[in-house]
Design brief:
The complex is a heterodimer. By secondary structure, chain A is of the alpha/beta class. Chain A has seven helices and 15 strands. In chain A, the strands form three sheets. Chain A has a nine-stranded mixed sheet with strand order 11-10-9-12-8-1-6-7-13, with helices on both faces. A two-stranded antiparallel ribbon of chain A has the order 2-5. In chain A, β10 and β11 form a beta hairpin. The longest helix of chain A has 16 residues. The relative contact order of chain A is 0.17. Chain B is built from eight helices and 17 strands. The model of chain B has no long low-confidence stretch (mean pLDDT about 95). Chain B is an alpha/beta fold. In chain B, the strands form three sheets. In chain B, strands 9-8-7-10-6-1-4-5-11 form a nine-stranded mixed sheet, sandwiched between helices. Chain B is elongated. In chain B, α3 packs across α4. Classes of the chains: A alpha/beta, B alpha/beta. Chains A and B meet through α3, α4, β9, β10 and β11 of A and α3, α4, β7, β8 and β9 of B. The complex binds flavin-adenine dinucleotide and adenosine monophosphate (AMP). The site of adenosine monophosphate has 24 residues of chain A, from α1, β6, α3, β8 and α4.
């Protein structure tokens, strides 16, 4: 099986984020592999390992696909050090400021050209928090959408079944290859890259492509930010120590705020 | 006047409060048509419950493909309707299903999409709170129909009764949208409490409950609140996953959020920090959750909550 995993480099969740000219300032913050995408990498590796592995000569391969600036190679390298075989990174100055629609059209083209059976994504990027890219890729490719999976079962003959968990309940869904999957964080425990994995990743190939090499033209974002203003931080609140009266103090606060 | 679609949102077989919120926001833009996607033969009964908020028309599309083929089938039917009627905007509830439908409709209709709006104005400008609620962003779709998902509990709904004209439309669903097949569906178990994302008050418990949610539930019930949980509590199996609040759980924005025995990890805060008022009960005075609390009690939740419950009951009876 040919498996692709879509990963995004995002600002560290703890970093203070700022908007500059309507775009997230990505230059001046620490960047990491979107942690929800680690579950996608892990699941891809587990699927490969359950069906003959992904070492040289094995029947499966796991390719990391990412769109982002040059330095997204760091995030991609982390996925490689977990055990993926190789990577494609699409970087082009014309892609700065892309929205999810533009991102999904680039990723869909790379995926279509790679001839994959299974594409695995995270459910959300921790910066954009849209949860739309996997559904968009599925719609663009016309492939089955198997998203929000808490369990994935693969029959290498060409069928995938998932358990989908969302606010709407729990669904059992299946489809024939090729499929687009997104996985929730409950699905597995991502492995830490081993020393051996980190060393091996240094030698793995990250194929860097610009838009011309991918064969799509840049699409401008179809939504525009008019303005972005920091909100005043929450005024520091009242803090009381419970010396027997904490419960009553809480009730008094509720009453004062007319919440009861 | 321009025409605006909302995708009617249901809780069980009744239109949810969110439907009235979507209609309220949409009515600022133009005349509101609520689209109801229903199983064969089920449309009339569902449509009859879409009767709160400023809704002029209800368009019912019936097909069993919605249940059998999930998001993709629903998005296809809605997208074809959008292509046919060219509304100025489509407002959809911001949850996993709604966002994925929006994503596909945007692709299929060549339109821009904005997710997690907390407000939408008459000129179709969406307001979003980003970076954990620290920044307010105003944005606009600049191509095609504005596809916008709106967070439940953000827009103050006009619940006045309406009696929209009900029409039927045919479902057009492509073969590509039928490639995934749903073999079984289990709706979430509903207790007697309000739905998390719709509740005015949410009381949540974390690892500090040590598996005993009784004091959290009792306090919630005294306030008529929904019960939430941190991931530590859902992972331990103390509370169902569907109650998890946070980045990988639900995003809530109630009038009042009470965090009990929760430390305030960034992933938890991502799901609750836009709540209007935040109250914290935690025995560790250094817990980061106190940083965003309007009122904090440093104390043991097993002492504080029962007394608070008693106090609320005494006042409200
Ligand atoms: C990819 C990813 C996604 C995640 N998504 C989410 C998410 O959606 N939602 C979420 O909540 N977390 C999420 N997390 C987990 C998050 O990082 C924290 O681990 C989690 O929120 C901690 O839960 P907690 O606050 O209940 O537990 P802890 O951090 O252990 O805190 C327990 C608190 O209870 C207090 N306490 C203990 N006993 C008492 C008592 N008797 N009375 C009063 N206070 C007491 C302690 O002082 C402590 O502050 C995610 C993590 C990852 C990596
Ligand atoms: N620039 C990108 N490059 C590769 N994958 C991406 C990119 N953006 C989003 N994804 C994938 O889509 C998922 C959902 O992202 P989002 O829709 O932005 O919340 C992520 O978890 C990734 O798997």
């Amino acid at each position: 099986m040919k498996i692709a995993v879509c990963v995004k480099q995002v600002p560290d969740s703890w970093a203070e984020k700022k908007m500059v000219n309507g775009l997230l300032d990505r230059e001046n913050v620490d960047a990491v592999l979107n942690d929800l995408d680690e579950y996608a990498v892990e699941e891809a590796l587990r699927i490969a390992e359950a069906h003959g592995g992904n070492e040289e000569g094995a029947p499966n391969s796991v390719t990391v696909i990412s769109m982002g600036p040059d330095r997204a190679t760091e995030a991609v390298r982390k996925a490689l050090s977990m055990g993926a075989n190789g990577a494609i990174l699409v970087s082009d100055s014309a892609l700065a400021g892309s929205d999810a629609l533009a991102t999904s059209s680039v990723l869909a083209k790379v995926i279509a050209d790679g001839g994959y059976d299974i594409v695995i994504c995270g459910t959300e990027s921790t910066d954009a928090r849209m949860s739309v890219v996997p559904a968009m890729i599925s719609a663009r490719l016309g492939w089955a959408q198997l998203t929000f999976a808490s369990k994935v079962t693969v029959d290498p003959a060409g069928k995938v079944s998932i358990t989908r968990v969302t606010e709407a309940g729990v669904d059992e869904i299946s489809a024939a290859f090729p499929v687009v999957i997104s996985v929730v964080e409950k699905i597995n425990e991502p492995r830490y890259p081993s020393f051996k994995g980190i060393m091996a990743a240094k030698k793995k190939v990250i194929e860097q492509k610009d838009l011309a090499a991918v064969g799509v033209s840049a699409q401008s974002a179809w939504s525009q930010v008019n303005d972005a203003t920091p909100r005043p931080p929450r005024a520091s609140g009242i803090k009381v120590n419970d010396e027997g009266n904490g419960g009553q103090d809480l009730v008094n606060f509720l009453a004062e705020k007319k919440l009861i | 006047m321009s025409n605006v679609f909302i995708l009617a949102d249901f809780s069980g077989d009744k239109a949810s409060k969110t439907t009235a919120e979507l209609a309220t926001a949409a009515a600022r833009i133009g005349s509101v048509t609520a689209v109801v996607l229903a199983g064969a033969g089920k449309g009339a009964a569902l449509a009859a419950t879409v009767n709160q908020g400023p809704i002029a028309n209800v368009l019912v599309i019936e097909s069993d493909d919605f249940a059998t083929h999930g998001v993709a089938a629903s998005a296809d039917a809605l997208a074809n309707l959008v292509k046919e009627k060219s509304p100025a905007a489509v407002l959809i509830a911001s949850h996993a299903f709604g966002k994925e439908v929006a994503a596909r409709v945007a692709v299929l209709t060549d339109s821009g999409v904005i997710t997690d709006a907390v407000d939408v104005s008459a000129d179709i400008t969406a307001t979003q709170l980003v970076f954990g609620g620290s920044t307010t962003v105003h944005s606009k779709v600049s191509h095609g129909t504005a596809i916008i998902t709106v967070r439940p509990n953000s827009v103050e709904a006009d619940f006045s009764a309406s009696s929209p004209a009900i029409e039927n439309a045919l479902a057009t669903i492509s073969a590509d949208a039928k490639k995934a097949t749903v073999s079984s569906s289990q709706p979430p178990v509903k207790g007697g409490r309000p739905e998390l994302t719709e509740a005015n008050i949410v009381v949540s418990g974390g690892r500090g409950t040590d598996g005993n949610f009784a004091p959290v539930e009792a306090f919630a019930d005294s306030l008529g609140a929904a019960v939430g949980a941190s991931r530590a509590a859902t992972d331990a199996g103390w509370y169902p996953h569907s109650h998890q609040v946070g980045q990988t759980g639900k995003t809530v924005s109630p009038q009042l959020y009470v965090a009990c025995g929760i430390s305030g990890a960034i992933q938890h805060r991502a799901g609750m920090q836009t709540s209007k008022t935040i109250i914290v009960v935690n025995k560790d005075p250094e817990a980061p959750i106190f940083d965003i609390a309007d009122f904090g009690v440093v104390g043991d939740l097993f002492n504080v909550l029962p007394k608070a419950t008693e106090g609320v009951v005494a006042r409200t009876n």
